[in-house]
């Protein structure tokens, strides 16, 4: 059965149907997402509580605003947004990003999500790559599948261990690049301290070490003062920068970007052209309209509030249920925290039992971490679900057999 279609006539007699149809579709989408018209999530009937999903909760998504922005983008620049265009991305959005980061637009490469930018940089540079341990599982899997020479440097509460990085650099050939997530890292939620940032930026400059700084989470900060990016500290000569609008607007738009040296641009453009000819320009034009209207900062404030309440709920639940039985950190922002289990527990085996009990997470080994560790995502579930999910985990941990 089709959506109801109510037709109105303007003064010239032309049919006007789009406003009612768009509104109806948006209301239907909100209902499917589990959000009432007032923006309050429906929490009934939850079976599995997922601490595995590193995605925003449905109520974080500015659905109505994006629907209006998509319509406006088509009306304003539809002939460009619906056709083949620049392989490097939608021009006005590239200019906005360039101005925000203080670079020339020619250095900005807008991709279908920032992970695609990682693919292109890897395909272009190849060779030995140094990553954090643990690190985001998808780049790690990409590197392993590509047969890349992979070295790892441990992460602690202050982020990447720069002393260990220097030892690893000295132990082999010059890497093609170092991949790091310095702020609210995935999976640990840790943040590289300012002192280490400055040391790492100096190391990149002094030794001409290429660094790919992946920074999708830094704007989702709840506590503390913002820290300068490696890109800012080093000047962008040896540090490449990638980010995404997935965590700040909506992941389904698939709009990420990278800022690369001008000399690398032509090669990346050729790789992109052979991959998809043109990126998703309509999604990029929609993001630009969202930014142009001044909706970005208010939306960030709203998202920060929603996610901080979830972070706080998880910390409170862990303290209540697992104090003295496990260790965890307190991230000042982002989507994740890192849970260290007793050495006698294997997180992979615990997950099997947890999934049967209706709660999921990602074992630390998936990210290169130790067996007795896990990533808990607080971004997707409600505070009420967090309370219940942690309670279930605590019950399972108490009854878990020791690892052999």
What are its keywords?
alpha/beta, disordered N terminus, Aspartate Aminotransferase, domain 2, four-stranded antiparallel β-sheet, 14% strand, eight-stranded mixed β-sheet, Aspartate Aminotransferase, domain 1, 404 residues, 2 domains, 13 helices
Structure description:
- The protein folds into two domains: 33-62 and 297-399, Alpha-Beta Complex (Aspartate Aminotransferase, domain 1), CATH 3.90.1150.10; 84-292, Aspartate Aminotransferase, domain 2 (3-Layer(aba) Sandwich), CATH 3.40.640.10.
- Helix content is 43%, strand content 14%.
- The protein has 13 helices and 16 strands.
- The model is unreliable at 1-44 (pLDDT under 50).
Blueprint of the fold:
Elements: E1 8-9, E2 15-16, H1 18-32, E3 49-50, H2 63-81, H3 91-101, E4 108-111, H4 114-125, E5 129-133, H5 137-145, E6 150-156, E7 159-160, H6 162-170, E8 177-180, H7 194-207, E9 211-214, H8 230-234, E10 239-244, E11 256-259, H9 265-276, H10 281-292, H11 296-322, E12 327-328, E13 336-340, H12 347-356, E14 359-360, E15 362-363, E16 373-377, H13 383-399
Parallel strand pairs: 3-14, 5-6, 5-8, 8-9, 9-10
Antiparallel strand pairs: 1-2, 4-11, 6-7, 10-11, 12-13, 13-16, 15-16
Helix pairs in contact: 1-2, 2-10, 4-5, 4-9, 11-13
């Amino acid at each position: 059965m089709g959506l109801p279609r109510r037709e109105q006539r303007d003064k010239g007699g032309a049919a006007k149907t789009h406003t009612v149809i768009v509104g109806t579709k948006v209301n239907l989408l909100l209902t499917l997402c589990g959000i009432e018209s007032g923006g309050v999530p429906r929490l009934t009937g939850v079976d599995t509580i997922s601490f595995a999903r590193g995605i925003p909760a449905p109520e974080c998504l500015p659905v109505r605003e994006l629907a209006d922005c998509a319509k406006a983008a088509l009306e304003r620049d539809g002939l460009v947004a619906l056709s083949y265009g620049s392989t490097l991305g939608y021009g006005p959005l590239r200019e906005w990003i360039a101005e925000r980061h203080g670079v020339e637009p020619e250095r900005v490469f807008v991709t279908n999500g920032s992970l695609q930018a990682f693919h292109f940089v890897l395909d272009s540079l190849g060779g030995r790559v140094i990553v954090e341990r643990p690190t985001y599982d998808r780049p790690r899997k990409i590197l392993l599948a590509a047969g890349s020479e992979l070295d790892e440097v441990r992460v602690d509460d202050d982020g990447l261990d720069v002393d260990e990085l220097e030892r690893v650099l000295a132990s082999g050939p010059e890497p093609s690049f170092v991949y790091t997530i310095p702020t609210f890292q995935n999976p640990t939620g840790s943040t590289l301290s300012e002192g280490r940032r400055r040391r790492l930026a100096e190391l990149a400059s002094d030794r001409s070490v290429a660094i790919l700084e992946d920074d999708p989470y830094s704007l989702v900060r709840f506590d503390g003062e913002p820290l300068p990016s490696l890109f800012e500290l080093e000047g962008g000569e040896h540090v490449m920068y990638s980010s995404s609008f997935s965590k700040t607007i909506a992941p389904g738009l698939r709009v990420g970007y990278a800022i690369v040296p001008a000399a690398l641009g032509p090669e990346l453009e050729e790789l992109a052209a052979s991959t998809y000819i043109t990126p998703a320009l309509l999604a990029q034009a929609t993001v630009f309209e969202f930014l142009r209207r001044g909706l970005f900062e208010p939306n960030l404030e709203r998202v920060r509030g929603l996610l901080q309440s979830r972070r706080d709920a998880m910390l409170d639940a862990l303290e209540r249920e697992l104090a003295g039985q496990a260790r965890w950190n307190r991230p000042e922002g982002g989507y994740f925290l890192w849970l260290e289990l007793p050495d006698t527990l294997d997180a992979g085996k615990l997950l099997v039992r947890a999934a049967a009990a209706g709660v999921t997470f990602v074992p630390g080994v998936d990210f290169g971490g130790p067996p007795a560790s896990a990533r808990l995502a607080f971004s997707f579930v409600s505070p009420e679900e967090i309370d219940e999910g942690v309670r279930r985990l605590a019950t399972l941990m108490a009854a878990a057999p020791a690892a052999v």
